[in-house]
Amino acid sequence: xxxxxxxxYECRLKVLTQPNETFYKDMGGKKTNVLSTTIQLLDKKGxxxxxLKPLVIQTSLVYESGRKIQVEDQKNIxxxxxxxxxxxxxxxxxxxxxxxxxxxxxxxxDGQRLKVRFDVLAEDVEESVVKPNTxxxxxxxxxxxxxxxxxxxxxxxxxxxxxxxxxxxxxxxRGPSLLSSNNERVAxxxxxxxxxxxxxxxxxxxxxxxxxxxLELKRHTEGAVNIERFASVIRGASHCSNIESKNxxxxxxxxxxxxxxxxxxxxxxxxxxxxxxxxxxxRLQSPLTGALAxxxxxxSMGADV
Length: 305
Prior knowledge:
This protein is of the alpha+beta class and 305 residues long. It has two domains: 9-147, Immunoglobulin-like; 197-304. 45% of the residues lie in helices and 20% in strands. The protein has helices at residues 71-77, 122-128, 160-174, 178-250, 257-260, 263-267, 273-279, 285-304, and strands spanning 9-17, 22-24, 35-43, 55-63, 78-81, 88-90, 95-102, 114-119, 134-137, 139-140, 145-147. The longest helix has 73 residues, at 178-250. The radius of gyration is 56 Å and the shape is rod-shaped.
């Protein structure tokens, strides 16, 4: 069954070579640092249709989502390189090649990637294609990320070294390295535990030294308390001797009961007295002699009374 005479003859555009996924616009010269793509005109059967003359192709720039960019913005971003200002055309071989540059980084476009769209106007199709009622479906290139320069410590994804590194990384991840990584983690943990044990031993030693110093300080403090107690004893004995001399001069009939008690009777039973005497044997030798003499007087006075 033959198709109606007024049936549309459908053709389509196809991208043969895609441009690079990433474009560094500030590297190299503007004449050499360009993007390239090649398109082809095909019919439903995948054949190149016959053309009466070259078919004019319209180029424009769109976002990755397909949304069109305003014409004014395209003039600042999209820079197609055309020979002698001639439009892009598809010849008898059915292909066309376009070199172009993108002059604005994706970061300034909200991080969006860009695509180049190829269209054919209806009047151009009527003039170029042999068969009437021919329609040509548009096509877009793959998305392109525009950047200024390569960072120092970053390798391009499409470079051979980056691909080899990624393949090595995949092989390492897939290989039998899980056991070795676990062994390394266990060794690191054991090392940390040993370090913590050493630190704990040092802390324990410091605590022991602090306890010894505290005990020594307590002993010195008790000795000072004993010396104060002994000094109070000596002051008491001296006070008794003063009372005796005062009684002799004034002629009082008797002393108080506490002063009439002998020194040895009052203080000889004190549990701290031996320690005090041993601690103050040399430093308080002369005050001790005076205190014993005073105690002898007090004892003789008590006997007279």
